[in-house]
Fold:
Amino acid sequence: MILVECTCDAKKFEVEPNLAGGIFVCENCNREIRVPKEEWAREYSKWITKTAASNEHDRVHGYQKIVELGTENALPALMRGVYDGSRDVVNTCLIGMIEVGPVGHAQLLDYFNKKMLAVSRLVAAIREESYWDAAPVLSRMIDEGRFNENQTSEMIPLLSEAGSKLDPAERQRCIDTLKALRKVFPNLAMIIDNALANYRRFDSQVVKIPEDAKHINDEERVDRVAEMAVSQRTENKKGCLMSLALLISFPLLSLVGGAMVFLS
Structure:
């Protein structure tokens, strides 16, 4: 039998091997899940036992190996891992959600939107693990309008720090995002200019302020936001003062009765 896990309350099912590579519909939420291949399932079963070890090093290693297996089937395990009491384990699982691709990115956004995770906590994990490949991924998500202004401001210094660790194409992605933000959020000009200054060695013109960023009224600003994205930024700005307090504090998310969530 092949173990299939869903992200809805970590529901688990066993399916026949002949369904490997096919689609299984979760009996709880009706989500379609790709059934992993038998070889993947065997490796997963081996490493998932490590994630329950009493030794922190073994748990981190187990989650790392699960991420290395690839595919979105790793996501339910990573979602359990962010409730671990170890900061290193939580870091590993947050980084893993970036590595597994769009489904992991969507899960992170869901945590942000539900105030279960602060952007500052993800940024801290990226720094602590020196996972600079996250910068172009976050740049793309910023370009798509996935974050409000306060959340974006938390990420700007990271885009700057990552510059020298990235290849030219990824570096340019970060530069382009920062330049676009310079037009959209004039009130963030100082931290954006500081971030761009770190790229001066690669592009002497990078700190030049675009003419259309020098004078921009509220109506133009709204238009620029719409150009960058058609998603939820406007909605997320509601209650931004509360969000800012939450983001700056590196909050703890705790559950009564035991499990710890997202260490700050």
Remarks:
- The chain is about 55% helix and 5% strand.
- The two ends are 39 Å apart (CA to CA).
- The chain has a mean pLDDT of 82.
- The longest helix spans residues 168-184.
